[in-house]
Design goal:
Layout lengths: L27 H30 L2 H12 L23 E6 L6 H11 L3 E7 L12 E5 L7 H6 L6 E4 L7 E5 L9 H12 L15
Parallel strand pairs: 1-2, 1-5, 3-4
Antiparallel strand pairs: 3-5
């Protein structure tokens, strides 16, 4: 009996020789997990390959190309819609004060008379205040309240091109036309009427290039 054999034990429990028996870990579960993972990956690759073959034989590329051409069809593109007309006041609803900021005499009176013929209501007529007298270098200044920025001021601006538009703290709806040193005359009535018509009915905004496709 070997010295390694406990007392009273023999038979299959008897240890002989000079080496200890090696105890190995059971690797059965680990091998099973690896086998399952490998099987899942293999099935996925096979399925992907089958889908690719189906796409090739059924003309998937042709369908994609046809869909791209359909997206580039100008008939299918949404048409641009014209914005709703602005509720602009009529010339008779706008009271205009005409002031002369130039050294030329009678300029405000003549301009006010022409604006009256074109349907505008005329208020004060005279020389500009010290704030503007001989200090307006351009054609003129249109001065009104903030509320008149999108209403009375642009309507009056159709009668005189190149004017500067400003606002102040006034509460009334009247607009000041301050004539500058470069002022010669009002725009022709025909041109002013066309500008007023465009202002009332703006053209549709063209679509941006970001939405276009290369066809």
């Amino acid at each position: 009996m070997s010295m390694l054999t406990p007392p009273g034990m023999g038979g299959k429990y008897r240890i002989t020789g000079a080496k200890y028996p090696r105890m190995r870990r059971n690797r059965g579960p680990r091998r099973i997990v690896l086998a399952v993972v490998a099987s899942v990956v293999a099935v996925g690759l096979v399925g992907w390959g089958i889908l690719q073959l189906i796409d090739v034989f059924t003309g998937g590329d042709k369908a994609t190309a046809a869909g791209s051409r359909a997206g580039c069809d100008p008939k299918a593109a949404p048409s641009a819609k014209a914005p709703a007309p602005k509720p602009l006041p009529k010339p008779g609803q706008i009271k205009v004060n005409v002031f002369n900021a130039t050294p030329r005499g009678g300029l405000a009176k003549d301009t006010a008379a022409e604006l009256k013929k074109r349907g505008f209501a005329i208020g004060k007529v005279g020389n500009a205040t010290k704030e503007f007298d001989k200090k307006v270098k351009g054609t003129g200044i249109l001065l009104g309240s903030k509320a008149a920025t999108d209403t009375a001021i642009p309507v009056l601006g159709t009668q005189l091109a190149g004017t500067e538009q400003r606002t102040d703290a006034r509460k009334s709806g009247e607009v000041d036309l301050i004539l500058g040193t470069q002022f010669k005359d009002l725009a022709k009535k025909e041109d002013a009427d066309k500008a007023l018509a465009v202002l009332a009915k703006p053209k549709p905004t063209p679509s941006t290039s970001s939405g276009k496709k290369n066809c």
